Each structure stands twice: as C-alpha cells, then as structure tokens.
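Here is one chain, start to finish.
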Amino acid sequence: MYTIMRISMLLALSFVLGGVSNVLGQGGDLKPLPLPKTIRVQSAAPRGEVWAKLSPKEKMLAYHLIQAANAGRELLFQRTHRHSLTIKSVLEEALSQEQIQKTKSQLGEKAFQEFVVYGAKFLDQGGPYTASNRKYVLEQVTQSQVQALIDGSSRASSLSKQDRTEIARLLCDPQYEVQQAPESPDGKGLEQTGSNFYEKGITGPEVMAVLDKTLKPNINSRVIRSDRGLACETLTLQSPEGVGAALHKVVAHLQAARPYALTAHQKEQIDAMIKYFQGGNVEDFRQASISWVRDRADSRVDFMIGWVEFEGDFLSRMAAWESYVQIVDPEISRLAMALAQRAQDFENAMPYGPFKKKFPADYSPPALMVYYFQEISGFRSGGYNLPNFDDIRRDVGAKNIIRLSMPGEDADSTLKAMRREALQEFLPASKVEPVLANRERCWRNLVLMHEIIGHGSGTYDTSKYAKTDDPVSVLGRLGSALEEQRADLTGLVFVDDPKLVEIGACKDATEAKLFRQLTYDMYMGDFLQRMSRDRTLAEMHQRGHWLFINKLLNAGAIQWVARDGGTMTPENQVLAVVDYDRFQSVARTVLGELQAIKADREEKQLKALFSEH
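Its structure:
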C-alpha cells in the first residue's frame, strides 16, 4: 500500500486565489518532486492468458517486435538527458545481483532503500524526469556517494570529471536542472534544463532567432552547434553515441519480424520503418503511418515504434521515442468500431460552427481495443490516436488504440485497495463507492470518446496553415494542451448520448445518466490526484484540465467542499460537482471555444485564454 501525497496548503490556496505562477512552472522557485515511499511491481502473469490465444505466426511476429522495442529503449533514455544512458548503466550495475550487497553496504539501509526506489522510477520513466517535467531527487543519498558508485562502474573510464559532477548534481542537487524542458513558448531558460533535444548550452533566444529560417527541426532531429551556427542533426543508423548502434538492433529485429507480417499493409509498414531508421527521411515514417492506418484492425498483433509524440521539446517539433506492441481483442473492438461508425452523428452535434467535418458515407476509422504487451514511453496512456500528421489524418485517416486492462486485473485486491484509497483522498466520501464500482466502464467510455471522436473531429481554415502543417504543432505547447482538453471535453459533453446506448457502451438511458454523474465526479478526483502527484500544471493534459476547472468554478458548476462533510480545511478540501447540467453546458461552451481557436489559428487568443486561466 502506498501513501498518497496531499496537496500542500500553498497549492490549495493558489487554486482558490488564482495565484498559480509557480504551479504553472513560471515562478522562480522550481522544486524537484519527492520520491514516492514505495513502488508497486505488477505481475506479468496475466499476459500469459493473452499470449496463449495467439497463433504460432502471431507469436513469432510479437516476439520480434518486442525485441525491436527493447532494442530501441536506449533511444527513449537518449532523449531525456545527455547523461541518461550513463546513469541507466550505473543504476543497473549498482543494483545487479553481483553488486547489490556492496551498494547496500556503501549507502546504508535508509539511503539504499531510497536509491532502489529512485532506480525503479528512473528505469520505468526513461530518465530522471517525470511526465510533469520535474525530476525526482535523492535526499538520503549524497553526491559523494553517487560519485563513488560512478567510480566503481564500468563507465567510469569514459567519463570526465565534469560528467561525474553533473551526474551527481542531477541526482542529488534540488536546484540543478530541475526541468526537462522550458515551459515558456519562447524557450526562456532552455540552457538550464536537462533535455537532450538541444546540445547543452543552447539558449531559447538563439533558437527562436533562426527557427524556420536556417533551423527547421523535425521529429527525429537534435539541435546542435556547428561552424555555421545552430543546425539539426538527423538521428539515423549512422548516428554516433549509441543512437546508431540501437537503431541497428531495432532494424535487425524488424527485418526478422517481416516474414511474419500478418497483412500486406503491415509488411509495408515494417519496410517503411526500416527505411526510415536507415536514412532518417521523415517521408518514410509518413508512409509507415499511412500503411499502419490502412491496416486497420486486420492484424491481431499491432505495433508503433519511433519518434512519435512531442514530449520534451518546448517547440513541439522534435518527438520523444516510444514503442508499443499490442494485441487486439477482436470481440471487444467491435464496441470501438461501432462508435467510430457514428462519427458523423457526433460531428453534426459538435459546437464547431462552420468547422465541422463531412465524413465519407462509409467512414469508419479503425478503432482497436488492445492489450499492451510492450509499452516503452516516458508516460503511461489509456490509449492513443495517430498519426500526428494532420494531412494524413485528413486524407487517409487515423487509427485509434484503446488500452484494455489485462485479464483479471480488475479483480486484483491490492490494486482495488489502492484505487479506493485514492478516491477516499480526493473525492467527497459519499461518492467513493459508486465511482469505484463503475470506474473501469466510465473511464473506458471517456477514453473511447476522447480518442475516436474527439481527436478525429473538426476541421480548420486551410488558408491559415501550410499544406502539411499539423495545427497542434504549429500552436506549440499550448496547442497540445488545447488539443488534449478538446478531446476530453468531447467525452464529457457526449457522456450520456443515446448513441452510447445504441452501441452497448451503456446499458440504457438510466445507466447513461448515472455514468454522466460518476464520470464528472471521477474527473474532479483524478485532477486532484494528478495535481498532488505532479505538483505542477506544466504537463499538457493537466494544463488543459486547469483551464476547464477554472471555467467550472467561475460558472458555479463545481465548488470546494470538505470531503468528510465537516468543516473545510486545506487538508480535507476536495472539488465536488454541484450542478451536473451546468457542468455539461460549460464543457460544451469551452469545446466550441477551443475548436474556434484551433480552426482560425488564433494564437494570441490561445495565449490570452491560458494566461487568464
């Protein structure tokens, strides 16, 4: 069992008073996150039940794709910090079976326990930074102890004195490179952050001065200094410092997977991926994405690998490495496909004015309900909607991946107890058991609407964007927050829509009405839980949530209450929905507002909206 970190009094007051500059990452007193006290290791046993249902060919394909994903894991670390791969090696050696007792003796019991938790979090999230753009920091382990571990590692001889000092400070110094990336759209403070998208020492003003002139970063770029000023290096098979070596292994396993491809489109996807990693031409990744979309749900074993999501770059131009190997559940996927077939009905009901899509009569974007067999990413998702190239989404389509719980996971007593503890902390007491009893189905419906209907909806003024522009990327970090909240609001607006009853997502109109109430309650608790964990609103989903929370508070749809019904204090206050109809109305209004900003490329209005809220 874990102990949930409560929101501090300062943070709670900042909600009420509106003074959120520090929580948004704009204040000068940036602090790292405290490590959790314990970690939970999840059993891989439930995957066996899914694996047993695969054919021999599907198992061979899945095996080689998983090996390719494992080989590419180094590339996730490579992006997060210039020293991440070295730290990964030091941690793995220090906690290996051969060295663990020596490490424990060096550190002492209390510091060793902290070091184990730090190592688990570092290896799980792909580096020193959390999804909230803050690092964890060691408090019991000293810089000198970290340097001693480095000196005793196999990497010691290849490290300069400066490297060792920087690594020790990164792990132990609460003032050093606290953020992975700057949270200002102009890159202010870039040189003080840790991300490896930019060579150390490059500043935001330097980047902005040449951006889209002599500097045109792409998803698989890294910005470096050269004799001619700032330049982009493309990450390929020929890249030095471990990148090329990792890609060689990725390509080898993709080549081994190719004979087991389940469809012609999947074979085309593998071929284009191999070509992309060999030469670095993003057009090859675009072709791989097109083949992936056209494969629809035809392959039981599905995958995505490469530099995909714009996490860690303040410009949202260069992407982080991710890989997913997922097993499709064809029976449950019928629910998602039925929803996708009703996309035009939802589009017609959107508050989008003239920017509504007209889908083809046979429009049915692929929607897969899957078991994640391999997830290598800096954050954990309930699903995803790709590709991120808006012209491909417009002309070819997109593919929706919705994560399923592993068989038996919902019956796990430990996991259920953890969920109850979280709900008890962040919801009014009367709402805990109803939300817990229906949590999985409510989240499932919200994620389905978010990924399939929300992200796939709406159009935009093409005269305001270049032909291959992705509006979200053009609008930068706030554009990402806008897009994620736009998709969330779609789910919140249509949570009780009769079409969800038609497809079987809700049993009847009575259950749909109940799910509306429970989803809104759950949404408030989830926001507070994430806020308590992350201590910042910098992460794009939370930034969008905060905008919406402010709108709800201003409209009187929600309010602060004591979770136990007694006198409200900073320690027991939670957010409660007091008017569900007004909540839904506010969601609809904000949805229309965000779509208008995206459609008309209203960059000034976007900044003003998020500055106000």
